[in-house]
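Need a sequence for this fold. Nothing fancy.
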């Protein structure tokens, strides 16, 4: 949502922090090649980035990494930085390592490559149910005893062929020689559990992974979380792990691909929260997911709330991106639809809020201000019906809406257009959320075209691209009910 490198190619990402400086590494590609290199960028605040050049490039013909490069991770031990990354050659994925003393110049160690092995995993095309052998996306955790544990994306040799997605496991004492262990988790419905991230929080262990609709994955929440980021819960570093009933952290709806590759970093002094990062995907058809075009999104806070993980806003970041603000007032009200008083629709402007009433159907009111890249904050308290905000409107004909649907207990991103009787909508994406009448809910929408990021009461709801222009007028909507809206507060550069 924020960082797009100059070559306009960003895919799987991994982050390393040292002395207050964040180092971002990500896959990139040249025209005609897939993932030909690993790029490096740095930031002091996770919001403003400076490119630091290529870290690792694809190997020469005959070398273990002469095929497409794959996701990696970075670990520092005794003053040396170890970059673990993957590559695919002859349909077999492998993981290798490069070392550095300054994070800028890297030296590959080709004789220490971890290849698919072990009686528990698919290791060749003969026992694979797909066209390649999965062995990628390492994550490394060090124990107090000094052992290094690597977790990675693999597939079990046995089980349902549409499942078999496994979290592989290997142990090392020196980050060079690895001993492969049985998987710590095997799924019965996920073809892959990609880019795992394993960490402890307040005495419990969690494992985050990403899974896509192109993996033929279907879950009970498939309609709104077909592709995206999920998590498992475990009793120890090596499990056993299980998937909770509400495992989706950040999802994209059926046929969509919005957010992917969620990972975390520790926060100093915090035991129930971590820094969470991911990337957004530019709006392309799901069948073209190999386009490898995305952006590194805004950071979030991953919090442990009771027994479940949730994502919340990071350190008031929107004000750091958009330092200027403007509170709209009653004199900024410019248009409404329907316009006829005979409809019974009322918009009653007060000094600090607007009262709204729509006996039936959806009614809207617009302000004379437009927003292209910025943020919108609105507080809503409804007595009945549904309500929300409008944005991206050309005049008052077509645009988008964020709707708090109290009847279905969810938040919706909708296309909104002018119809014969009031406004009408078509669904883009939604997310379940507990909503209460007579309670004030805060909507915060961040727009960085073509991406939108939505928070309700500080909890992340959506972070994804929207096809079509998101720039334009903003407004409010009410559907079959009544309530009170604060005047929007706009943040901008």
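Here you go.
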């Amino acid at each position: 949502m924020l960082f797009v490198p100059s070559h306009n190619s960003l895919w799987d990402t991994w982050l390393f922090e040292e002395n207050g400086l964040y180092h971002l590494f990500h896959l990139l590609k040249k025209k005609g090649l897939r993932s030909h290199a690993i790029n490096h960028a740095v930031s002091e605040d996770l919001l403003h980035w400076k490119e630091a050049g290529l870290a690792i490039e694809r190997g020469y013909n005959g070398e273990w990494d002469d095929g497409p490069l794959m996701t990696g991770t970075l670990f520092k031990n005794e003053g040396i930085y170890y970059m673990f990354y993957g590559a695919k050659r002859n349909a077999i994925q492998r993981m290798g390592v490069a070392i550095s003393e300054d994070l800028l110049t890297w030296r590959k160690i080709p004789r220490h490559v971890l290849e698919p092995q072990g009686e528990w995993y698919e290791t060749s095309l003969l026992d694979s149910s797909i066209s390649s052998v999965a062995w990628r996306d390492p994550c490394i955790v060090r124990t107090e005893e000094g052992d290094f544990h690597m977790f990675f994306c693999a597939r079990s040799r046995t089980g349902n062929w549409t499942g078999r997605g496994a979290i592989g496991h290997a142990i090392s004492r020196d980050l060079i020689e690895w001993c492969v262990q049985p998987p710590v988790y095997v799924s019965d419905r996920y073809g892959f559990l990609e880019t795992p991230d394993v960490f402890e929080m307040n005495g419990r262990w969690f494992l985050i992974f990403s899974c896509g609709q192109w993996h033929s994955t279907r879950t009970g929440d498939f309609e709104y979380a077909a592709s995206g980021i999920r998590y498992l819960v475990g009793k120890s570093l090596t499990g056993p792990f299980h998937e909770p009933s509400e495992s989706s952290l950040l999802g994209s709806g059926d046929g969509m691909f919005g957010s992917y590759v969620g990972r975390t970093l520790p926060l100093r002094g915090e035991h129930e929260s971590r820094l969470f990062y991911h990337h957004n995907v530019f709006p392309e058809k799901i069948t073209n997911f190999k386009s490898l075009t995305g952006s590194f999104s805004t950071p979030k806070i991953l919090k442990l709330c009771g027994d479940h993980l949730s994502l919340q806003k990071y350190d008031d970041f929107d004000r750091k991106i958009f330092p200027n603000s403007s509170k709209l007032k009653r004199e900024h009200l410019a248009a409404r639809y329907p316009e006829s008083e005979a409809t019974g629709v009322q918009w009653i402007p007060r000094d600090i809020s607007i009262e709204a009433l729509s006996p039936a159907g959806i009614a809207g009111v617009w302000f004379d201000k437009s927003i292209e890249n910025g943020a919108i904050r609105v507080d809503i308290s409804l007595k009945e019906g549904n309500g929300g905000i409008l944005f991206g409107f050309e005049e008052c004909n077509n645009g988008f809406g964020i709707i708090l649907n109290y009847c279905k207990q969810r938040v919706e991103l909708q296309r909104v257009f002018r119809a014969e009787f009031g406004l009408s909508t078509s669904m883009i994406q939604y997310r379940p959320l507990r909503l209460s009448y007579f309670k004030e809910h805060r909507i915060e929408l961040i727009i960085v075209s073509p991406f939108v990021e939505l928070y309700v009461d500080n909890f992340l709801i959506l972070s994804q691209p929207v096809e079509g222009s998101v720039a334009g007028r903003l407004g409010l909507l009410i559907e079959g009910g009544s309530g009170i809206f604060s005047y929007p507060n706009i943040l901008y550069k």
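For context: The CA atoms of residues 131 and 323 lie 50 Å apart.
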